Amino acid sequence: MPVQLSTAPDPTTVTTLGGSGAARAEGPDLGPARALSCRECGATYDLGPLYACADCFGPLEVAYDFAGVTRESIEAGPHNIWRYRQLLPVPSRVTQTPNLEPGATPLVPARRLARELGMRSLWVKDDSANPTHSFKDRVVAVALAAARELGFGTLACPSTGNLANAVAAAAARAGIRSVVLVPADLEQQKIVTTAVYGGTLVAVEGNYDDVNRVASELAGDHEDWAFVNVNVRPFYAEGSKTLGFEVAEALGWRLPEQVVIPVASGSQLTKVDKAFGELVTLGLVEHTPYRIFGAQATGCSPVAAAFKAGQDVVRPVRPATIAKSLAIGNPADGPYALDTCRRTGGYVEDVSDEEIVDGIRLLARTEGIFAETAGGVVIATLRKLLAEGRLDPDADTVVFNTGDGLKTLDAVAPVVGPAATIAPTAAAFEAAGLG
Known about the structure:
Elements: E1 3-5, E2 14-16, E3 33-38, E4 44-45, E5 60-64, H1 71-75, E6 107-109, H2 111-117, E7 122-126, H3 136-149, E8 154-158, H4 162-174, E9 177-183, H5 188-195, E10 200-204, H6 208-221, E11 225-227, H7 233-238, H8 241-250, E12 258-262, H9 267-281, E13 291-297, H10 302-309, H11 334-343, E14 348-351, H12 353-367, H13 373-388, E15 397-401, H14 409-412, H15 426-431
Parallel strand pairs: 7-15, 8-9, 8-11, 9-10, 12-13, 12-15, 13-14
Antiparallel strand pairs: 1-2, 3-4, 3-5, 6-7
Helix pairs in contact: 2-12, 3-4, 4-5, 8-9, 9-11, 10-11, 12-13
């Protein structure tokens, strides 16, 4: 008998359904997805472009009816996120439609970094290997698949950069229009790598929260536009689960003991937790304890501040950090990230801009992975958590690099460069003391 996963905070809670659960009521083909459920009051809604509960205004989440999911059925799938389509709110024919096919990114054994930090076993989940070089390709692929099924013809978003790249590229591949709004002071690399895909790119004077407010207003005015992180957010957010699925599969179908995840909206962190819970519930991995740690930049650390203060309310802040991809001052999933870290015995820490740059350089020097600023936040947080004694150096640990350092060159440009500038002779090389 298939099981339906509860949307309660504990992801291992399940209830069995009566009957086979195989029949689908008339409606969109979104695979195992059967309804939208409020994370606060539990009210349910038909699948559609909804993101807030009409009763309590709580966020909506996808509820499923999983059936016939095995390790073998997953492993028989394509070498991208669609191998997990039985666990995602996407059409059964998703592999037959044009998309960027993200996922299957490497889980890199970080042996040199582990030795330098005094750790036994450490891996880097390197999502810079995705088509537009960030984890956002995952969430956009799921949002696009759902949006197509729901009848949308325009893909849109507010973004701090990586999402802008992913939406513009995915829409281009799909042959539909994209509308992307970004802060005007965004890194030039991210502006160029969004504009090149030919969609509508709009720079907004203000920070991400200002951009998000404009997008929310436009979503109300343009009901035929799928704003991936607004009106189709419940589907979009589920794409982050594939990070957790891939980590567990790459580890030989087991859960890591500790993970360190960057926190912007907080959704990625909570969905990795959800993924682990679903794998346990479906019997795909053994139920072993794991701890989840969140990483923020001090210049935009409302979740870390709330965690340290023992508060359940995340108070909005005005971002001021080089980690612009994490610069969300009013994180939508902040309270749920707090709950996840507390429930699993983890922590939420923050690091300064100087520590972020050091983190980028440390990962590059030891493992040959050039992370963007969000990755620098994670590595710096990992080091800080170890120094504080909050993270076990002997436990199997996975850290997440969610983007490519080529997108945030300005962060490291002032502190790296040639060892010397010399005349074009070997003698000049030797004279510079470089031999």
